[in-house]
Fold Metalloprotease.
Amino acid sequence: MKWTDDRGGNVDDRRGSGGGGGGMIVGGGLGTLIIAAIVFFLGGDPSGILNSGSVQSSGNSGEKRELTANEKQIGEMVDMMAKWNILTWDQIFKENGMTYSAPEVVLFENTTRSACGVAESAMGPFYCPADQKVYMDMSFFNELQQRFGAKVTEFTVAYVLAHEVGHHVQTLLGTTQKVDALRRSGRYSEAEMNRVSVATELQADFYAGVWAKKTDDSKHILEPGDIQSAIDAAQAVGDDNIQKRAQGYVNQESFTHGSSAQRKEWFMKGYNSGDIRQGDTFNQLLK
């Protein structure tokens, strides 16, 4: 992946601030974190688990520290990627007669607070609609490589960030609110809502593919192997792969994010088309 001079991506870097350490798990304990990790890896709104009261923070017990040179470089990279998302989505929204407002990207370590509740490293990256921020603990990428078999590159990080920004796009377009209304209505079974969740997540993958295409068209950031690294990450966190690794078998009715094949399919559809209007996963998957 080629770097550019773009910065100013609306990043709040909380690493080393002293407010992240010392997290304490109360009530649900580790089981809650395992559920959160499986259900919300590369997911949307985690408030269903976070706001249940099962996970709480013990407060700002950590000590401040200076970021290492490598951590500072990672911060620069995320700032650059976040700016790419702002520029690309601003362009896409203008082309469709709309106005884009960017999310804030929060970098943290161990735990931090969000409007959806306490954010924990074990959850993986997520988007919180309540404050319109993307939360990322970079230790997730070690987990992605070691536990889920994805080879992590710089563009892997770009894909994950683009997926979460895709959830922000859904919030701006009203999709998130419609899905939440369905969930709150109580008229649908768990299996039916899981299918809605899959459509939501695959649309975020589609938007990530659109972003990759449009950003490369304007910035020429892609190098050989970059798109494959995004596909590898998407497939690694497919529900079937996660379930096989976690429990040894696959239960398709419990899918919430889509299979590895589906995640690749919709990311590539977004990348090949570059057209946000072709990402109606709901009509295609909920027939």
